[in-house]
Amino acid sequence: VMAWYAWKRSGLPRTQVLGTGTALDTSRLKTIIGEETGLDPRNVGGFVMGEHGDSQFTAWSTVSLGGKPFARFLADNQDRFASVSTTEIEEKTRTRGDEIVAA
């Protein structure tokens, strides 16, 4: 929405206006999953979708660790990761930017 608005207001060709969408939020998601599991975030795949902010959501069906679906990874490693909560990960992903601004 914001990229479209910027394009319309700027008068620039549409090929010269870029929007990041939820790319930053996806990066935060991968980092937070890495923190929660102790694994390298570079081995985390997946996407945050929607608009940046309160309406964003994690597309959990796209999330994987080392190529293994995240839900399956957690189920296969319940003894190690029983305390990992997708609800908490999603909330941390949504609010991490606020923490950075407050610091």
Which descriptors would you attach to this protein?
103 residues, mainly alpha, L-2-Hydroxyisocaproate Dehydrogenase, Chain A, domain 2, 3-stranded antiparallel sheet, elongated, L-lactate_DH_AS
Describe, in plain words, how this protein is organized in 3D:
The chain is mostly helical. It has a single domain, classed as L-2-Hydroxyisocaproate Dehydrogenase, Chain A, domain 2 (Alpha-Beta Complex). It is 50% helix and 10% strand. The relative contact order is 0.14. It comes from Bifidobacterium longum subsp. infantis. Belongs to the LDH/MDH superfamily. LDH family. Pfam families: Ldh_1_C.
Briefly characterize the structure.
50% of the residues lie in helices and 10% in strands.
Quick check: average pLDDT? 90
Which percent band covers the strand fraction?
5-15%
Helix content estimate: 40-55%
For the largest sheet, list the strands in their spatial order.
Answer: 1-4-5
- Taking the alpha carbons of the first and last residues, their distance comes to 28 Å
Low-confidence stretches: none
How would you name the oligomeric state of the polypeptide chains in this document? single chain
Structural class: mainly alpha
- For the CA atoms, what is the radius of gyration? 16 Å
The count of DSSP E runs of length 2 or more, i.e. the number of strands, is 5
GO molecular function: L-lactate dehydrogenase (NAD+) activity
Pfam family, one: Ldh_1_C
Keywords: Oxidoreductase
Domain Lactate/malate dehydrogenase C-terminal: 22-103
